[in-house]
Specification:
Helices cover 35% and strands 23% of the residues. It has 292 residues and is an alpha/beta fold. It has a domain of 197 residues: Vaccinia Virus protein VP39 (Rossmann fold, 3-Layer(aba) Sandwich), CATH 3.40.50.
Length: 292
């Protein structure tokens, strides 16, 4: 790990990320309400795109529902399911027999999006639903995706923006990092152009889940494996005093008897250029839209 990484309190501990999602594999589906909503929205947007890929990568597949939906939509394609957590892939495999009529092949890879073990120009499409926020090097991840995509291949993704869990961030402002750092839509667009993608289109939507108390917020995050994996997190168990203070601080956000948890979702898609353009020359404009 470089000095820069050591000094960055928001640097992701990938071993902790992997372990958290391993443990959450059995509870993930019941709690992943937002992930399901975003997946449905991504699929509806895919209806507007004319593409006939032969091989699709589901990057950060979780328990496999995105892979299953893609296989159903593109019945003749090969879908590769990739996740950093072996437990998630095992859950995907367990669920495959239930969907055997649409999911014809078992292509499971345990790997990190930042280090894709796939051949150059081997994919027609990369799909990633709420996984890129776990990358430390977004430029590196986009370069990896560009490497494995065929010319004119499609990247379609969703990830979290800076307003995500803003209430929790404000309620835990005690010197340690308790919520990950999420990248702004405009910076994501810049990273796409640096990686050689053409005509990136990005937009933002805000979702609010509501809870009776802070314990329910934390329970849901734990159930989907969204543990704090930043380098600046507090070490050891958080005491009762911390939890009481968290609950007290979070109360300022209560509306109509419920505590909100805001999620800013960045949707994006872009095409791999025939050849990577020089920076600043011939780069297609980025289209941004913002919805509240």
């Amino acid at each position: 790990m470089s000095d820069l990484n050591v000094q960055d309190s928001y640097w992701m501990d990938k071993a902790r990320v992997r372990a958290s999602f391993d443990r959450a594999a059995q509870t993930y589906d019941a709690a992943a309400i937002l992930q399901k909503l975003v997946r449905t929205e991504m699929l509806s947007r895919l209806d507007l795109v004319k593409i006939k890929p032969q091989v699709i990568l589901d990057a950060g597949c979780g328990t496999g529902h995105g892979s299953f939906a893609l296989q159903k939509k593109f019945s003749s394609v090969q879908v590769i399911s990739l996740d950093i957590a072996l437990g998630m892939l095992q859950k995907t495999q367990q669920q495959q027999p239930l969907l055997s009529k649409i999911f014809k092949q078992k292509n499971l890879i345990c790997a990190d999006i930042e280090h894709l073990p796939l051949a150059n120009s081997s994919l027609g499409m990369v799909w990633s639903n709420l996984a890129l926020q776990w990358c430390n090097d977004l430029d590196g991840a986009f370069n990896q995706i560009a490497r494995v995509l065929q010319p004119n291949g499609l990247l379609m993704f969703s990830t979290f923006g800076p307003d995500t869990l803003k209430e929790l961030r404000a309620a835990t402002n005690n010197g340690n990092t308790h919520v990950s750092r999420f990248i702004d839509m405009h910076d994501i667009g810049d990273a796409l152009t640096r990686a050689g993608f053409s005509a990136p289109v990005l937009d933002v939507e805000h979702y609010t889940l509501t809870y009776d108390d802070v314990k329910a917020v934390m329970k849901d995050l734990k159930a989907i494996g969204a543990h704090n994996a930043t380098a600046g997190r507090a070490r050891g168990l958080q005491g009762r005093g911390f939890l009481q203070q968290l609950a007290q601080n979070y109360e300022q956000f209560r509306v109509d008897g419920k505590l909100p948890a805001t999620f800013e979702v960045v949707y994006g898609h872009a095409w791999k250029s025939e050849s990577k353009p020089d920076l600043g020359i011939g780069v297609s404009p980025i289209t941004f839209k913002t919805y509240k």
